[in-house]
Hints:
Elements: H1 2-82
Amino acid sequence: MMEAEVxxxxxxxxxxxxxxxxxxxxxxxxxxxxxxxxxxxxxxxRERTELEVLxxxxxxxTRALSALETGQRGLVALLSRMAPGRQEGAEG
Length: 92
């Protein structure tokens, strides 16, 4: 039914009506695309912020693990030096 109504209106206005209808259809589609692009842009910005936070957390965790490893290596070295029966100059 809608197509018949559109055809009747187009016939009434001729080529100018067809051009107007095409322009309106394109504008409607363009508006929908612009809205989608805007929503995607906002989503990308949100995800970028979330990704930056995640990268910061990973960097901080890596730094903490490195500090822990350094501390453990120092503790092992200290315990090795303090072990009874260890000879001077022996490799451990």
